[in-house]
Amino acid sequence: MEIHGGVMDERMIDFSISVNPYTPAWTDKLFERCKEISNRYLYAEWIEERFRQRFGQDTVIVAGATEAFQIMGFTVMDEAVVIIPTPSYGEYERVASFRTKRVLKIPPKDGVDLDLDNAFELAKKSSKHEKTVLVIGNPNNPTGRYLKIHDELEDLGDKVTIVLDEAFVDFVDDRLRWTIDNPNIIIVRSFTKSYGMPGIRVGYIKSQNFKDTFKRYRAPWALGSCGYAFVEFLIEDDGKFISESVKSIRAESKKFERFGIITDANFGILKVKDAREFQKRLDKDGIHVRNCESFGLRDAVRMAIRRPNENEKLFESLRRMIE
Question: Considering the domain 40-237, what is its CATH architecture?
């Protein structure tokens, strides 16, 4: 079973990884800076105060969202009831299994929509007697749909620890996005997907109650020289690259709607009869998409939104398959 996206063959157009198809104009300068400081040990603490002036005093830099979830698996989720509405990112269940055997996956409604009413009700009941963690991806992975659930999360109060994975929120239209001020929420965000450089591992968490937990358990040099340099350029960029590139991605997303792929993010799912066979047929055209079996969706594939010329090649293959 395919657990994560990505393909080894570099000749393929890779629609299986949901990253920005564009990169900043300062990318070459970034790698020059990376080389300059690669002979040093670099600490996130050295640049974190500058980072917090831009992203908030309740933030902690981590080596990508993956490090954040690794830490939670051993701390926040330790001996807890962990509730995961599905379909969802497989890492939630994997890290939860580190220190607890009580992982409750909530099946979807209508085959794909998150059953959040059931998840919220179960979290309320569980929290009366046991340590409870609720994990939700927003936008959802793999569907790409953005959930308006801030009122429901407020209603859960301070007894449920809520993990809100916003790794792809940069791709969501600002008019749809909402914020929430709940000290018991851990927001997880990733930068390098948004900047088209997932090989550089940089992300952050935002939390009032759990900030010190992540500061204590993160690895001391996990960012490396390129991650450290990336944060330097990120602060200087001040969101300009994201603002410009996401406009292009949102415009391209409208073209995907012709094939029934509706998304608020930079990726979405297409319902098919046989996901494995569908993936193999596209592979023959030099196009790789994500088989969604690991999400529990045997009849769906996930595909990212890429540059217009690459998207058109995908559309051509889809038209041939439909015909």
Answer: 3-Layer(aba) Sandwich (3.40)
User: Are the folds of 13-22+240-322 and 40-237 the same?
Assistant: no
Whether residue 44 contacts residue 61, with contact meaning beta carbons closer than 8 Å, is answered with yes
Domains of the chain, residue spans: 13-22+240-322, 40-237
Give the CATH class of 13-22+240-322. alpha beta
Threshold 0.85, pTM exceeds: yes
For residue 302, give the 3-state DSSP assignment: strand
Q: What is the pLDDT of residues 104-136, one digit of tens each?
A: 999 998 889 999 999 999 999 999 999 999 999
Asked if residues 192 and 23 have their Cβ atoms less than 8 Å apart, the reply is no
User: Which of the 8 DSSP states describes residue 165?
Assistant: E
Angle (deg, nearest 10), helices 224-237 and 27-36? 140
Task: List for the chain the helix, strand, coil content (%; round to 5).
Answer: 40, 15, 45
Instruction: Write down the residue that tokens 């993010």 correspond to.
Output: 265
Tell me what percent of the residues of the chain surpass a pLDDT of 70. Answer: 97
Angle, alpha carbons 207-224-228 (nearest 5°): 60
Q: Is the pLDDT of residue 5 over 70?
A: no
* Span 275-284, average pLDDT: 93
For residue 3, the model assigns a pLDDT of 57
How far, CA to CA in Å, does 132 sit from each of 73, 100, 121, 181?
Answer: 13, 11, 12, 19
